[in-house]
Design a protein that fits this description.
Layout lengths: L1 H21 L12 E2 L5 E3 L4 E3 L9 H12 L6 H6 L5 H12 L6 E5 L5 H9 L9 E5 L11 H5 L11 H7 L7 E5 L14 E6 L4 H11 L3 E9 L8 H13 L5 E2 L5 E4 L7
Parallel strand pairs: 4-5, 4-7, 5-6, 7-8
Antiparallel strand pairs: 1-2, 2-3, 8-10, 9-10
Helix pairs in contact: 2-5, 4-5, 8-9
The chain binds S-adenosylmethionine.
Length: about 280
């Protein structure tokens, strides 16, 4: 086991050392700085993760192909970090694995907050060979975070106009290989939350960065969310998103559902309500 891991670890550490040496010249060779430190310890700064375990994402060829595609398309959500060579990997991997898990649940996928389509790509890619592959409906302004409805705290942490360097055309291009599996609902939430969206939701990825539209989206999605369905909250534990956390905590408490906080800072909710008999 150690023998198998060591060459990869040495390669990763080597890549990172070279990166450090080349940084003053503004160059980098490693497409991702998440690193296996000694064959066991793993560190992914943009996911906020230090782990004693080697994550399976590193050995998942399908996922690594997705990362290469997204790197080439410059589609990662934290562009500053991507320039430093650090990209969100574990959060994307978890979204893909959950999409596979939700495959047997009635309905399709929904994403509230898409930016350049990185998570949507991973969800579609992870499920591409499954029979009756699910579609995804993407809700976003495709022009960045709007100021309407922003709390003072959200303004203070600098969310105004963040994620504006995108467009529906760019996302269509990034996800083009999935063709008819991708549907767009461009515009402001809550205005776009109407009866034209999917009637049954197997999995929703909620990544709007703001409390109010998150609450609007969850209220709209709740009656459509299939039993056994999955809800993945991207920013749940992250600093700066405290207002959003308060809202989702209260929302799911009312539904008597537990938010499982996972080490990437994501919140995971399973629609496991026991129906009254
Ligand atoms: C962090 S980004 C999403 C990242 C994306 N999930 C990914 O995989 O890269 C947040 C997105 O939420 C969108 N957004 C925030 N508030 C919105 C609203 N009220 N209506 C529509 N889109 C909104 C922004 O346009 C932005 O693209």
């Amino acid at each position: 086991m150690i023998k198998r891991l060591l060459p990869t670890a040495a390669k990763d550490v080597g890549k990172n050392l070279l990166d450090v040496m080349l940084a003053p010249l503004g160059w980098k060779i490693a497409p991702q700085r998440s690193v296996v430190l000694d064959g066991h310890w793993y560190h992914s700064p943009v996911d906020g993760v230090v782990s004693r375990h080697r994550p399976p994402s590193l050995d998942d060829e399908r996922f690594q192909q997705a990362v290469r595609h997204l790197s080439k398309r410059n589609a990662f959500s934290d562009l500053d970090a991507a320039v430093r060579g650090e990209v969100v990997l574990q959060r994307l991997y978890i979204a893909g694995q959950l999409a596979k898990t939700a495959h047997g649940v009635a309905g399709d996928f929904v994403e509230f907050g898409t930016y350049r389509g990185a998570t949507a790509y991973c969800m579609l890619s992870a499920t591409r060979d499954l029979p009756h592959a699910k579609s995804i409906t993407l809700y976003d302004t495709f022009a960045g975070i709007p100021t309407e409805g922003m709390t003072a705290h959200e303004r203070d942490v600098g969310l105004t106009n963040a994620y504006s360097e995108t467009s529906a055309d760019m996302v269509q291009e990034n996800l083009s290989e999935f063709g008819a599996r991708v549907h767009f609902r461009p515009g402001m939430i809550p205005e776009t939350l109407d009866s034209t969206g999917p009637q049954q939701i197997a999995m929703m990825h909620v990544d709007l960065n703001l409390a109010q539209p998150t609450l609007d989206a969850l209220r709209w999605a709740l009656p459509r969310w299939s039993p056994g369905g999955i809800c993945l909250l991207d920013d749940y534990l992250w600093e700066g998103y405290e207002d959003q956390r308060q809202c989702v905590d209260a929302f799911f408490r009312d539904q008597q559902l537990t938010i499982i906080a996972i080490p990437t800072g994501q919140g995971l909710v399973l629609n496991q309500q026991i129906s009254p008999t």
